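FORM 7B - TANDEM STRUCTURE REPORT

SECTION 1: FIRST PROTEIN
SEQUENCE AND TOKENS:
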Amino acid sequence: MMGDFSFNMNYENRDKLLGISGEWIFKRGSGSIRRFDFIDVSILKQLIENKFIDPIESHNSSPSIEQIYGFMARFPHVMAKGYVTSPLRIDYRVSLDALFVPKKHITQQLKQDFIAFCVKADELETDEYLYAWWD
């Protein structure tokens, strides 16, 4: 949901921070969004501080960016991923739609809190690793 948040429109810096490259073209569909690989809490903090991501935004039924940041700050091994929209779109943004924790970093407390935090996820995996995805 788009509000009164004023996004930093310097998409070159945003994309560099997220490891995204390539020229944006003006069209709808797959060419107007790009997925990025998992980021850690330090990258998310930079996205927030530089106004590349709206802290109150959430992807469908996911927790807000602010809530995800708090969870990742508490559990620094949690990684997030998502997508960015083209700077040519009216809904320019960064969205997070998944969280992940590798097996080697899972503690009982983290697993318990991850399950509770991701209760509304469309997909939730907790056997070999922790993974939540919101459609």
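SECTION 2: SECOND PROTEIN
SEQUENCE AND TOKENS:
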Amino acid sequence: MELVSAARTLSFSPLIDGDWAKKHTDIDLSKPFNLNMRNDLIIVEDLDKSERYSILELEERLGSIHHGESGEFTKEEEFEDAFMYCEDTKLKLRGYKMTYAISLPIQMPINIDYSKELVGVIEYLHKGTKTAIFSDGKSREWS
């Protein structure tokens, strides 16, 4: 079994529509605006694609597209009609730039021990098949 982990966000820089924010929020745009929130609480809603996802869900998507790759990657997205929700704050989102890291997949071999249940194996030489006999009386053909 191979375990593919989600991407790990190194930086997330949203591009907010300043005119929209000035008209629709009480955020002081003369000061830097910082988001210090968990990645599952920052929601992106892309109205053009009818998609709604958290940064955490985006990390999971990004982790699954890098098969066998590891390292740092950058994703840039631009939007025509999208919003970003941060708790009680709604902001018009023009795009974002995200830097993220992908670790190598974790190899997890799985061994199934049938030694307590398996009574024996019958090999049919003329057929080239094997049948396993279990302690509960059930049998299963193996090729």
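SECTION 3: OBSERVATIONS ON SECOND PROTEIN
The longest strand covers residues 71-86.
The chain has a mean pLDDT of 88.

SECTION 4: SIGNATURE
Preparer initials: ____
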